[in-house]
Amino acid sequence: MNAISITNLKKVYADGTEALKGINLDVDAGDFFALLGANGAGKTTIIGILTGLVIKTEGQAQILGLDVDKNGPVARRLIGVVPQEFNFNMFERVEDIVINQAGYFGIERKVAIKECERLLKKLEIWNKRDVPSRSLSGGMKRRLMIARALVNRPKLLILDEPTAGVDVELRHGMWEFLKELNREGTTILLTTHYLEEVEQMCRRAAIIKNGEIIKNDTVRSLLKLIDEETYIVQVDDVKKIKDLNIAHLKIVDDHTFEVELKKGDKLNDLILKMSQAGAAVTDIRPKGNRLEKLFLKILQQ
Ligand code: ATP
């Protein structure tokens, strides 16, 4: 069964903005799916329609086989949503925010208290359970939003830019947490601007441009479309490699240069060539994110 099934979905806002122009999208149950697109592409509008916050103009949307128009309230019990904006009561205690949310789902208080403890510990904000949410840092608030969204053990978790404003270390921790959740069977749909996040976590991704889906594929296949990669190489002395006629080379400083390798070019051949010239390579790493490059390329087409 599909976790999400969207057919010919259109949205025209009251001011005439055509946010979605007839989108078709299926997300398999158990998948980890990314919606990618520039600001204003239509990602939040899709989420809004799925979660009942935005009224669609045309088309159909189903969550786990339930039509969002006909069975909206039932469908919404099966999902957890983490919106972009913090929307909890800033004066309410952290623990109460999660426990009260469970109350909306009719979960017994005793059970809710236990579940809240499990989630706050898992998301590493248990020591903040007693403070009002306004005194949390941005990253902690984001984790509180996730804890709250998970309290009803949703089958589908929808996250709109879950790691916006979260520092690098914390972001990696959240990736691990979400990956584990997905392994345990929760379908995850997320929007993000961090393409590294997609490469690390997601199985499939759809790229949206001006209200239309222009690519929908496995992340692995998308990565295969990339035909070049730039590496940053550190050597003992760049003078030693200057005369080697290495194509697509850009010297950064006395010990560092960048080189662009095309599909088929071998990194090993380059290293061999450099060591034959007497250069000692001290570090090689890809420059930036591969998916990011592809994304920019696709959007510019
Ligand atoms: P971002 O990455 O910035 O969150 P997004 O892909 O989520 O962007 P949406 O928020 O879905 O994009 O917006 C899609 C289009 O619809 C944009 O042109 C936006 O200005 C417009 N839009 C969104 N909400 C409304 C609204 N309430 N009224 C009018 N236009 C809107």
* CA radius of gyration: 23 Å
Largest sheet: 6 strands, mixed
Share in helix: 25-40%
Top-tier CATH class of the largest domain: Alpha Beta
What fold name stands as the CATH topology of the largest domain? Rossmann fold
N-to-C terminal Cα separation, in Å? 34 Å
Q: Architecture of the largest domain in CATH? A: 3-Layer(aba) Sandwich
Instruction: Output the structural class.
Output: alpha/beta
Number of domains: 2
Strand content: 25-35%
Count of alpha and pi helical runs: 11
CATH superfamily of the largest domain: P-loop containing nucleotide triphosphate hydrolases
Mean pLDDT: 91
- How many strands appear in the DSSP assignment? 14
Which ligands appear in the coordinates?
adenosine-5'-triphosphate
Low-confidence stretches: none
Please tag this protein with its features.
2 domains, 35% helix, globular, Alpha-Beta Plaits, 301 residues, Rossmann fold, alpha/beta, binds adenosine-5'-triphosphate, 4-stranded antiparallel beta sheet
